[in-house]
From TrEMBL:
Domain of life: Bacteria
Protein's name in the database: D-xylose transport system ATP-binding protein
PANTHER family (alphabetical): CARBOHYDRATE TRANSPORT ATP-BINDING PROTEIN MG119-RELATED, SUGAR ABC TRANSPORTER ATP-BINDING PROTEIN
ABC transporter domain span: 17-263
Matches recorded under Gene3D superfamilies: P-loop containing nucleotide triphosphate hydrolases (3.40.50.300)
InterPro entries with a match to the protein in the record: AAA+_ATPase, ABC_carbohydrate_import_ATPase, ABC_transporter-like_ATP-bd, ABC_transporter-like_CS, P-loop_NTPase
Upper classification of the organism: Bacteria, Pseudomonadati, Pseudomonadota, Alphaproteobacteria, Rhodobacterales
MF GO annotations: ATP binding; ATP hydrolysis activity
Keyword annotations: ATP-binding, Nucleotide-binding
Amino acid sequence: MSQTKQSMGPTAPSPHLRVSDIHKRFGGVHALKGVNFEVARGEVMALVGDNGAGKSTLMKVLAGAHTADEGQFFIDEEAVSVNSPHDASDLGIQIVYQDLALCENLDVAANLCLGAEPIKPGFSFLPRFLRPLDDLEMEVRAQEAIDRLQVKTLKSVRAKVGGLSGGQRQAIAIARAVGADGSVVMLDEPTAALGVAQTRQVLDVVKRLRDTNHAVVYISHNMRDIFEVADRICVLRHGANVATWNKNDVTPDQIVSAMTRGLDKEAQNAA
Ligand SMILES: Nc1ncnc2c1ncn2[C@@H]1O[C@H](COP(=O)(O)OP(=O)(O)OP(=O)(O)O)[C@@H](O)[C@H]1O
């Protein structure tokens, strides 16, 4: 049976997003069994667990893509409801899925403004689909978004996404999710398919998100990346909490052991 010990430690910051006792069932599969989770502004909370532990399900519940069967949501300790992606987005909760959902044939500026394209002034008499896009404004907005995250390797916001590296694409997808006022950003295995240099670029963007006071949820299996960017590490196993540690209080071996076997007595006392 999974153990459910939450150890937030004396230095745990006050949460921006907190969920409590979340349950999610898919028919006979009880994917989340009373999970507690939280992340503060200016914090990277890693969410780890073995395959099938419930990480993606929890992330989708937080993003409103799945509705929880039971449980409570709080933003800055005020109860809120999240029953759709729209609800989550209204609360500033954004998710970057592994497939990134970028349009390869469009440039960076068009991708960053997708669905919220600025229109040239003076054409409001036309039906919306006939109004000309304001390319210059689109470029300015895109450049601001790129500058905010300090994506240094991107030469131009007019570059086609199809010609960008994996790291650059990940950075563009993050910049689009964050927008100007994204407060919670959830990243699903952002470095899974990347080489060393591109991983570095993405980890720098994640750190930049923290530095700009976002609350970052970071799903990964890569212990090196986790120990580089995370402030705290939340371990799930079989759809339940095992523990949440401050990064400096735990080793990669302890995390792997908690993911695969849960906590032994000694670790429970330490956590
Ligand atoms: N849409 C679904 N329908 C039925 N079962 C599902 C669905 N989504 C997830 N599950 C089940 O819920 C459990 C948790 O899955 P989830 O994808 O959240 O795990 P995970 O920790 O993200 O794993 P991985 O690291 O392999 O992505 C698994 O048993 C999975 O088969």
